[in-house]
Amino acid sequence: MRLLVILAFVCTSFLAVGQTPVKSIPFELFGDHIIIQLNVDGSEPLDFIFDSGDGLTVIDQDVAEALGLEKHDATINNGTVRGSLIKHNTLAIGDFLLEKNIKVYATDLDHLEISLGRDFDGIIGYDLMMHHAVRIDYENKIFEVYNHGEHPKVGKAIPFKLHAGIPTVEGNVILNNGETHPGSFFVMTGAGTTMDFNSPYALQYDVAHKTGDHYSYMVKSISNKETKHYEGRVQSFSFGGEKFDNIPVGISEATTGVQADKKIAGIIGNEILMRYNLEFDMPAKMIYIEKNGNYDKPFRINCSGLDVQLSPDKQKVLIHQVFENSPAEAAGIQQDDELVKLNGMSMSEVDMAEVKETLKTDGKTVELVILQDGAEKTVTLELKQLL
């Protein structure tokens, strides 16, 4: 009997050791984006977006120059992005050194920072997941790195395939007219959406006319090209035995990049993924999902008719778009107006994520002070979902 107890203790000890992360760090969830800190060649911690849909590790070219990193011209993203391959010695998460064979590319990220409303220094995804299992605890905002085969494997296991270096899972959509459409969907933690239809898939099935009322807006990619998107709803979207009813979805009109991929139906983004704690296991091609405290939160939809972003010098918050038939349009707000205050707080007192979150709060009344044609103007908006 004592021998059995000892063996059980030993086995439990080995299991606990095997499931210990080699590195565990807190992360920032800025809006829908996971931000972790990395060091490049012994630098101070740099803010990198973790995106499971990112096939290349990139660093902002201004940061690369400030660090004195040697650069060589290179083609990025099939030639749609100008950049350089940089020479570096180490990439690290704190005191944990990543593999030396990770290629890092430098490119201009200013346009993404302007859209996001926050400076960041780079993007990493595939290169980290290829060498290590990754666990994302959205509820407690903890990012864990494990040796392959030694992660906890908590939750439901969903098989995936790699396409263009991005995990893809099988899903199913029921459009508003009752049509059912299966397809493969990218799993992208860097996408601030619920689910987006890729443009070829959307065109093939005329999705835009089968998603009820919708509105359009412009989105940016790493190539700095804005493309039109539509926002609508579908009866349901399901993947891996998980189902979401009557959810808002995006419809892309992209002509380049992952959203123009003809073989993939669309993208599952962080508005869905954040409702689970995730583990990515590349060798086994498995994603583990575990429902967390975010699961029952309502999906956020634009309620104001405004899209805001930073000015080119990042010193002001500007109205980037005003949607038709929205509270913002009715209030006379115009594109390129400056947002000076929101509910009495200046833009120096709130960050962009807070501004966007507030403007998506259905049923709330907000007061905006805007600068229009050189004069300040106070407007009150009754927020209401546009869909």
UniProtKB/TrEMBL annotation:
Residues 1-18 form the signal peptide. Keywords: Signal. It comes from the Bacteria. Pfam families: Asp_protease_2, PDZ. Residues 286-374 form the PDZ domain. This is PDZ domain-containing protein.
